[in-house]
Amino acid sequence: xxxxxxxxxxxxxxxxxxxxxxxxxxxxxxxxxxxxxxxxxxxxxxxxxxxxxxxxxxxxxxxxxxxxxxxxxxxxxxxxxxxxxxxxxxxxxxxxxxxxxxxxxxxxxxxxxxxxxxxxxxxxxxxxxxxxxxxxxxxxxxxxxxxxxxxxxxxxxxxxxxxxxxxxxxxxxxxxxxxxxxxxxxxxxxxxxxxxxxxxxxxxxxxxxxxxxxxxxxxxxxxxxxxxxxxxxxxxxxxxxxxxxxxxxxxxxxxxxxxxxxxxxxxxxxxxxxxxxxxxxxxxxxxxxxxxxxxxxxxxxxxxxxxxxxxxxxxxxxxxxxxxxxxxxxxxxxxxxxxxxxxxxxxxxxxxxxxxxxxxxxxxxxxxxxxxxxxxxxxxxxxxxxxxxxxxxxxxxxxxxxxxxxxxxxxxxxxxxxxxxxxxxxxxxxx
Length: 431
What we know:
- By secondary structure, the protein is an alpha/beta fold.
- It folds into two domains: 2-227, Alpha-Beta Complex (Spore Coat Polysaccharide Biosynthesis Protein SpsA, Chain A); 244-428, 3-Layer(aba) Sandwich (Rossmann fold), CATH 3.40.50.
- Helix content is 27%, strand content 22%.
- It has helices spanning 33-43, 57-64, 84-87, 113-123, 191-201, 221-233, 235-238, 275-283, 305-321, 359-368, 382-391, 420-428; strands at residues 2-7, 27-28, 31-32, 48-53, 73-78, 100-104, 107-110, 127-132, 142-145, 151-155, 169-176, 206-210, 214-217, 246-250, 287-294, 328-332, 376-379, 394-398, 415-417.
- The strands form five sheets. A seven-stranded mixed beta sheet has the order 5-4-1-6-11-8-12. A six-stranded parallel beta sheet has the order 16-15-14-17-18-19, with helices on both faces.
- The longest helix has 17 residues, at 305-321.
- It is globular and about 70 Å long.
- The two termini are 40 Å apart.
- 45% of the residues are buried.
- The model has no long low-confidence stretch (mean pLDDT 94).
């Protein structure tokens, strides 16, 4: 498989760092962004690479040569005029006859490419977009997909105001079928704004590959500094899903948001004060932040799946405004007790996913290669603590929400904390 790197950006937000060099040659921890990308591709056994250059492209050509000094085979193509992220691809159509990987030249990443290729092959779409949550969704292009991962729409950053949205950001890494090239002409165009919508209008299927692995753009000095620290700490390589992960599992009602009984209306959802700061700490650590929640409002027919999705979108948007995000959310729609007049009989069952069952945790462990014995569970009820113990996690009971007064299980948590913020401090101090 070939990889294409779009290395034509000017890097205007980097100020003096790019006054006389192109953005991909900016150094992070003593190595250029481009070198970090080449190291990644070589590790993933991708050795044939095409680099598309623009601004000060001759300096990239001088730096790369034919790639032999990196142990790679590198071709390069220089833009004569800027044609956007997609239009520049017109010049290399005849060099791409098989599926290929496309990277933007301002990202640092470490992703299990084998898993991405398997996902792409299984879905057989014209394109697979790598997506993930980030700490600034309000100024990122967002991707909406259905439960099967099929992309439904794109929300450009300029159109987000007043919308509920999932924090699912285009990570600027695509696995593309050569069929996508049929939609590209030698004119200025962008994949998100032009090419992908055009292909979808033609009933071509595009899929979103959601990952918790590390991929971040380094378009500002602040992000360069942050990514540099992540490289030094081992966080970048450590997030690759080939390696076991650690997670902090967090109950929703009474732990993340204020407890209001059976929450079934978007307007009633309010974050507990300090939640954003607490989850932001998790995002900056080696742990994944995963929400685990029972939602019997579905089985009781008090709330539709669509409304529950909107509640979770509101949570995602509010956390995003506070520079925080959940890596994943799992909910159980079931309830075992029958006899309610309005109940949804299909979901009135005993299941393995409803807490204190550990079905949601084992699914998360499978999806993200999580080692449950090195993970934590935080909740406001004895049922949450029982769930964590059954899964082999360490546990923390918080005094918000129900504060452990449900009395359903005679269990002792590893710690008792005032709120989610103090719970996270406790975990990060007891690694």
